[in-house]
Write a structure and sequence with these properties.
The protein is mainly alpha-helical. The longest helix is centred in the middle third of the chain and has 26 residues. The termini are far apart.
């Protein structure tokens, strides 16, 4: 699985060399899935896939953030869109982890309403800045 992470890194390098910052999106997806597989293989815990798939939209969000930082799009827009995907992905990961994994993951469920509250506070600020 480490070689899958390396393939994601190579996709990012190819995107940088060809001046295609949008390549950060598939690079993040491939590297992220490689990371999930590496953790599952290392700890021999393949049951975590029942909720780890929820991280994939977050990998897309990270790719959008990287693409914006590398010059592929408006940085504020990239932060807003990518950040939204990362938050949704983290919320789903915690929610499904609490349902399917139990144990320690159940202790994380309070992070969902806290994260939602933070999002409610921050989103209007981002909209206000984007309009000005």
């Amino acid at each position: 699985p480490v070689w899958i992470i390396a393939v994601g890194g190579m996709l990012l390098v190819i995107g940088l060399l060809t001046r295609t910052p949008e390549m950060a999106i598939p690079a993040s997806i491939v590297a992220g899935i490689g990371g999930i597989l590496w953790v599952q293989n290392t700890y021999n815990n393949w049951g975590t896939w029942s909720y780890s798939w929820a991280l994939i939209p977050g990998f897309v969000g990270v790719g959008i953030l990287l693409s914006g930082l590398l010059g592929g799009r408006n940085v504020r827009e990239a932060v807003r869109e990518g950040g939204r995907l990362v938050i949704i992905s983290a919320t789903l990961f915690i929610l499904f982890g609490a349902v399917f994994a139990g144990g320690r993951m159940r202790d994380l469920w309070p992070l969902i309403p806290i994260g939602f509250g933070v999002w409610l506070l921050v989103e209007p600020l981002l909209k206000r800045r984007a309009q000005s």
